[in-house]
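Below: protein 1.
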Amino acid sequence: GAGPEIEFRRIQAISCRGNLRIRVAPCGALFAYVETRDCPRGEHWSAPWPGEPLRHLQHSEQQQLAEALLGGGFFALPGEIVTPGRDGFRD
């Protein structure tokens, strides 16, 4: 069966350059995007998600990922973590 959709975003406080987002769709499609441009003020991304996945995870790879996330307590984390400071990140 299909797995859950999993998404992770790392957003920098100062500039959107270097912001990272990763998504695994239930079908195993793996999307990733690293921001390389400047964004309008208040925006975190200059473009939508890529139209094509980087690759497709096999069912066994999806299971490994889910087990690692469950075993590592990922789903127990808060929805947002803010690291204070001049170069803080929001994950």
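Below: protein 2.
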Amino acid sequence: MPWEDIKSSDLWYFDGNLVVAATDMEEKKRYLFKVHKSVLASHSPIWKDIFDLPQAPATSKGDKSDTFEGLPLMVFPDAASDVEDLFSFMYMIRHIPHEILKVDTVDEVAGALRLSTKYDIEHLMARIVGVLESDWPKKLCDWDVREKYVNHLLIEKDGEDMDKYFAEPAALIRIATECNVLAVLPAAFYHLSRVYWRVQPSEGATGVSTGAVSAIARTAKVEILEAKDLRRLIVGREALRAEVLDFLYRVKRSRDEGHIATCKLTSKAEPLVWPCKKGLNDWWTNHALNYVLNCDKDDMHPINLYDPLASLTKLAMDITDWNFLSSAKRPCSTCRGWAANEILAERLKIWESLPRMFGIKDAWRNEEDSSSEGETNDDD
């Protein structure tokens, strides 16, 4: 069966001096691009070195296996769609997306990222990575800005199919892992870990599940993950839950001495008693822990435990603004401020621990504001 040659409609320049071919072995097709050696060489030192090599003469006068329509033919062992994406960005036929959390950003840049990594096209790779990092940031403050946008969109588009608006993390994890773009992985894995899948019972007699939908308007294609990344997801998700629960139990055991001196309700009659202790302990147990472990009546699952960053933010606001029914049990503003600071400190600790929890070695090693130096061991 002869090969079918398909010329690119957009990447076929009349003054081009090189034809690049990407082959589809199964369909026996060659996708052809007529481009310029100088353009390719200016982008990639690998291609520049190839073009600087002396060209071998044809083995015989009639040998045209290395030419196409009289021009040198260069065969790429890459997917035609990836080659087309790369050349489209290089020739600025297409532009790298810049909208925040654009739903198809990964699809648009994956091919170009894959080949710019392979062929050492540093400037293009840096621009693409910058776009991905803006969606999946390294700093907690940037994550919070992102979440405000997401929550606003959730309210604005209530009732619509949110797949049309939200970036999906599993595809990002696949291409970032392949191209060693580690910095985006902790945030992506965290987002993936908070997707709780509500199982839908079958309408058939067997009662076997027919599928699953997101219980909190989050979407993910978990099925495309490789086994190693699924393991990271499971281990990291359990580590997150354990850390939150440990914090809520640990903070109740705070020593009294440190608070007696600052508590506004401390009396001279009982200088060794922390007056706000009981009120705070009641709040940690009856409000904070109950909120985190509260189960939706339809799911019987503690959904708030899936998103500890959001849950801790709410708890910090609650303790600051909390109005007790009984003024006798109401902690003073100083003690409530201490509790809020403890919650926010725990929130930052969780964020900085994401690389360790999800086993992503060196993901944020060079980020002074985002990662601790000792939390980069890969547990794979």
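The beta strands are 4-12, 18-24, 29-35, 67-68, 71-76, 197-200, 211-214.
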